[in-house]
Write a structure and sequence with these properties.
Layout (H helix, E strand, L loop, with lengths): L2 E7 L13 E6 L2 E7 L3 H6 L9 E3 L11 H10 L8 E5 L1 H10 L6 E5 L5 E4 L2 E7 L7 E7 L2 E5 L9 H5 L4 E5 L15 H10 L4 E5 L7 H9 L6 E4 L5 E5 L1
Helix pairs in contact: 5-6
The structure holds zinc ion (ZN) (2 copies).
């Protein structure tokens, strides 16, 4: 059994030359899930799988740096083959679903389901649960449990998000780390050091810092995360990087 995460994009707020905006390819068993669809992540997704292999999409919130490339797979399902492809599930908060519908006929390509904190869905033998995050718009963190492995993704959040239920005992936590010590205060995003605290508090063994700012020394983010987080493996996300949740 395999369970892996590939970074499709990890740049905060907009895509840069170095990084696409937020997105991840989650693979477990034969299942491929696109988790957040920020600008640039569609092109990067195609480096790893054929879009016809995509089984489902999750969007954590409606902000453009997590959503805009979803219209690429929408059109690929409708127009990419001589015959329209089967719909695939798309899970997102209600206001994200509403905005997508206002923009395009997404019900033609997706089985749209609104999800919120406390909801659970099953996909390909995995249990996927959604957790409240602290962000200016409705945002869900995503926890995926498969074959004994646990992956947690904070999406965008301040330290007041439900990080405990999201990340408890996770083998891999991808945590946003938009800011650095001395920034703020800002309750809708986290400092790299706060990401590390969340990892330590919740017994996470592997922390990947993501939603990285484009104009900062990221070595400093890593350094600040390492301070006081002994025993946790910490690294910076990078587009194309793949992490095994279970070997
Ligand atoms: Zn964002
Ligand atoms: Zn956001």
């Amino acid at each position: 059994m395999s369970f892996s995460i590939t970074v499709l994009g990890c740049s905060a707020t907009f895509a840069t030359r170095e990084r696409a905006a937020s997105g991840y390819l989650v693979r477990f068993g034969d299942t491929s899930l696109w988790l957040d669809a920020g600008a640039g992540t569609w092109r990067n997704l195609l480096e790893h799988i054929d879009y016809q292999e995509l089984d489902a999409v999750i969007l954590t919130h409606r902000h453009p740096d997590h959503t805009t490339d979803v219209f690429q797979v929408h059109h690929a399902i409708l127009y990419g083959q001589p015959q329209r492809l089967p719909k695939i599930p798309l899970w997102a908060p209600q206001d994200t679903v509403d905005r997508l519908r206002a923009f395009a006929n997404v019900d033609d390509s997706f089985e749209m389901t609104a999800v919120g904190a406390g909801d659970e869905v099953n996909l390909g033998g995995a249990k996927i649960s959604f957790h409240h995050m602290a962000h200016p718009v409705e945002t869900v963190g995503v926890r995926i449990e498969y074959d004994g492995g646990v992956f947690a993704y904070t999406a965008d959040t301040g330290p007041g998000g439900d990080l405990g239920n999201l990340a408890k005992g996770a083998d891999l936590l991808i945590c946003e780390a938009t800011f650095q010590d001395g920034d703020g205060p800002w309750d809708g995003h986290m400092l790299a050091s706060e990401a590390a605290t969340a990892a330590v508090t919740n017994g996470v063994s592997h922390l990947v810092l993501s939603h990285l700012p484009s104009h900062r020394d990221l070595g400093l983010s890593l350094q600040q995360a390492h301070h006081g987080a002994h025993g946790v493996t910490i690294e910076l996300a990078a587009d194309g990087e793949r992490y095994e949740v279970i070997g």
